[in-house]
Amino acid sequence: MPRCECPLPAGRPGVRTGPVTLGNDGAIYAIGGTNDETMGRYTSSGVTTGIQIPGNNLIALLPSSGGTFWVAEPKLCIGQPTDISLRINRFAPDVTDTSGGFMFPVAISLGAAHQLGVDATSSLWEAGAERSDPDRFFRMDATGTIDRSAAFPTVGGATLHTDGTLVVSNDGALWASAQTPSSHEYLIRFVPSP
Question: What pTM, to 2 d.p., does this model score?
Answer without folding.
Answer: 0.77
